[in-house]
Design a protein that fits this description.
Blueprint lengths: L6 H13 L40 E7 L2 E7 L4 H11 L2
Antiparallel strand pairs: 1-2
């Protein structure tokens, strides 16, 4: 748990290691105390595109197909929450 490993995953690894023949088991070197180093956190900058004002945002386009019939719906991106509510009702 101190190394952020799920207990169930660790138990599975132990079980799998117990099931392998002795020649296939790999042992890890364990470092205790001052020799152990904390993992270093590094900041990685990511450039993001500038936000688009709602008035200039492209429309939401939804295409529904059922057999040979296709229905295309265009919805203003500024009203995305209303579109989501409409989709929830449609898919009930």
């Amino acid at each position: 748990m101190a190394h952020s490993i799920n207990a169930n995953l660790l138990r599975r690894w132990v079980h799998e290691a117990e099931m392998k023949p002795r020649s296939e088991v790999v042992r890890a070197n364990v470092v205790d105390g001052a020799k152990a180093q904390e993992p270093k956190t590094v900041f990685v900058p990511v450039s993001l595109p500038a936000p688009v004002p709602p008035a200039q945002a492209p429309d939401i386009r939804i295409e529904l197909r059922r057999g040979p019939t296709t229905v295309t719906v265009s919805w203003p991106a500024g009203a995305a929450s209303e579109c989501a509510a409409w989709m929830r009702e449609l898919l009930r």
